[in-house]
Design goal:
Strand content: 5-15%
Structural class: alpha/beta
Largest sheet: 8 strands, mixed
Number of helices: 10
Order of helices and strands: HHEHHEEEHHEHEEEHEHHE
Number of strands: 10
Helix content: 40-55%
Oligomer: single chain
Radius of gyration: 23 Å
Shape: globular
Distance between the termini: 22 Å
């Protein structure tokens, strides 16, 4: 996106130069001619700064990169998006992201003095504060919390007991460092094995999702640019039409990833068009 904006600025300058040359060649030194020449120095087309968007999440985020970027690229606003992040994954034109496979919300936050163990495969990964300071996103798409329900020697501890505190800390850190950023946080998706008669039997997860919705509503009332996307409810509804999970019951298959990307794209479009409510409707539309 940076290259595209450079080209736009160059073309704008080039048009201005051509305009000046033509006016000088044909000018008559009167007030009207002088005004015409001065007007030529104004840019013919002002270049619009790219909107820096960070995808923040775990392996669900990483496996959705291709589908999401493909859908966003086909929207009217797609050419103005600059994906940012400290990671570079995949053979994409713009590979930047913040999708950390296997990470819990607690690990992303890394609350000082919390002694949260990081995944054993990480070297110098940083945390949410480092990533935001390094990339300065305008919009952050967050879907975290899945890995807080698992624990092992390699991945770290089960941190579901303080999941809501971790999610709240992540939100607060982003808004502290980027007070004018727009944050879209999605509810935590269900596990396939927890879905019973169209409902999620995981009470810890449903409690955390209810907390997220309430937190977003409260922060929005305080003037924060934060929005809630009920991905959990959308997935439950979509699952009634056919299986969208992969064989592990945790990740999503191709149809599922297309659906997740559609939901994110719809939410991003709504927020960029200055949504009037912090709760993004769950009804999907095709693009």
């Amino acid at each position: 996106m940076a290259i595209q904006n450079q080209i736009r600025r160059f073309l704008s300058i080039e048009k201005s130069i051509e305009c000046v040359t033509e006016k000088i060649a044909n000018c008559r030194w009167g007030n009207s001619s002088l005004a015409a020449i001065l007007l030529c120095f104004l840019p013919v087309g002002t270049a619009t700064a790219a909107t820096k968007v960070m995808s923040l999440g775990d392996s669900l985020c990483a496996s959705n990169i291709a589908a999401l970027r493909s859908q966003v690229a086909h929207t009217k606003f797609g050419s103005a998006i600059d994906w940012v992040g400290t990671k570079k994954d995949g053979a994409y034109t713009d590979p930047d992201n913040e999708c950390h496979g296997g990470w819990s919300a607690a690990q992303v936050l890394q609350q000082p003095k919390s002694n949260v163990r990081l995944p054993s495969w990480e070297k110098n990964p940083g945390g949410i504060r480092d990533w935001v300071q390094a990339t300065k996103p305008d919009v952050v798409l967050i879907m975290l919390g899945t890995n807080d329900f698992f624990g092992s020697d390699a991945r770290g501890d089960n941190t579901s007991g303080f999941l809501t505190k971790s999610l709240q800390g992540i939100i607060d850190d982003i808004l502290l460092l980027r007070p004018n950023a727009k944050v879209i946080i999605a509810s935590i998706p269900p596990f396939k094995w927890d879905i019973q008669k169209g409902a999620d039997a995981n009470q810890t997860k449903t409690t955390a999702n209810a907390f997220l919705k309430q937190r977003v509503t409260k922060l929005s009332a305080q003037g924060k640019r934060i929005f809630f996307l009920d991905m959990h409810a959308s997935i439950l509804a979509r699952s009634k039409q056919g299986d969208i999970f992969s064989s592990d019951g945790l990740h999503f298959n191709e149809q599922g990833n297309r659906f997740i990307a559609q939901e994110w794209t719809r939410a991003l479009k709504t927020v960029l068009q200055r949504a009037q409510t912090p709760i993004i409707p769950t009804t999907s539309k095709n693009y």
